[in-house]
Amino acid sequence: MKKACVITSIHSPYDGRIYHKQCKSLKRAGYDVVLIAPEPEVQESEDIPLITFKRPSSIKERILSTFHLYKLAKNTNADIYHFHDPELMIVGVMIEMVLKKPVIYDVHEHYPNTIMGREYIPSVIKVPMKFAYIAVEKMALMKISGVIYTTEEIGRRYSSYNGCKIENYPLKQMFPEGKREKDPNQLIYLGGITKIRGVLELVDGFSQAVGNAPQAKLLFLGSFESDAFKEEVFNLIKEKGIEENVSFISRVPYEQISSYVNRSSIGILPYLPYPNHLVALPNKLFEYMAASNAIIASDFPHYRKVMEDSKGGLVINPEDSRDISEKITQLLNQPNETAQLGDNARKAFENKYNWSCEEKKLLEFYHTLLRR
C-alpha cells in the first residue's frame, strides 16, 4: 500500500476538490491517504485522517507557516506528496530535494491573472507581485515532479513540465438519477459572494426581472467576501424593493449542496470579465448541470463552449443588467424551455462532465509518478 500526503494551507479540509474527490478517490484505489489542512470549525467527516493546524490569518502568516507544514509533511513518511496552494511551492521543493519523494503541484487557477484581479492587493504592487510569482513558480517547477491543472488555457503555462489536465467536475453520487422536485420560480447562485463575480449586476438584473415575474426567487448559497460588501448588497436589495424575493444561506457541508441546487430550476453564473475568469471553469457550472438546472452564464469562451456542447443554457453579458433581466425573464416565463435546457445539461453531466472521468486520470498520473 502506497501512502499519499495531501497538503493545503488555506482550503477547508472538507473542500470538494481536495477531500471529497481526490482524497476519497485515492483511498478507494488503495492508497493510505493523510490530509494536512487548517483546523475545521466543525468536524464533518472521518473518512480521511486529518493533521490540522491553526489557519493563517494573513499572507505573512501563510508564508511563515510553510516550514511548519514541511515538518508535518515529512513526519507522515509518505511515498508521494500533493500540495494545493502557491505558497507551498517551497514545501514541495524541499520534499523533492531532501526526502527524494515525488511531489505534485495542483494549480487551481491562473495565478498571475488572479493576482491582477484581486481588489485587496494595492495596484502599485500587483505587477511586481505577478512577475515575482512567475519567477518563483518557474524555479520551483524545475524540481517538482508533476503539475495538475484545469482547462487548456491554464495548461499552456505548464506545457514544458510533466502535467495533467484534471477538471473539477461533480461527483455522480452527489447527484443521483431520479426525478427532482423543482421550484419553477427559483434561481440559485452558488459560491462565494464577491464583487468580481457580478453579484451587484445580478441583483440589479434580477430586480428588473421581478417586475415581469413577481413570483421569481433568488437564493444565494455561499459566504460574503467581507462585511462591507454584504452591507452593499443588502442596501441594493432594499433599494430595489426585492427583500421578499432574495434569500441567503451561508456555507453548508459539501454533501448538502446538492439538496439546494436540486430544488432550483435555474443556476446562474454572472462572473465579470476579470483575467482569471476568462481562462477557468468554475465547478458550480457543472453542479448546476448535474442538478438539471437550466444555466445562465457569462458569455466567456469557456462557458459558451460548454453551453453549446450541452445545449443546457443561455449566455449573458454580465456587465449588462438589462441582458441579465431579459434572460431570467425568458426562462421564468417559458418553463417548458427551461425544463428542456435542464434535461440537456443533465445528460451532458452524465456523459462527460462528471468526476468519474477525471478520477481515472488522477490515478494514472499518480501511478506514473510513483513508477518513475
TrEMBL record:
SUPFAM superfamilies: UDP-Glycosyltransferase/glycogen phosphorylase. Keywords: Glycosyltransferase, Transferase. Residues 21-163 form the Glycosyltransferase subfamily 4-like N-terminal domain. InterPro entries: Glyco_trans_1, Glyco_trans_4-like_N. The keyword Transferase applies. Residues 176-347 form the Glycosyl transferase family domain. The keyword RNA-binding does not apply. This is Glycosyltransferase involved in cell wall biosynthesis. It comes from Guptibacillus hwajinpoensis.
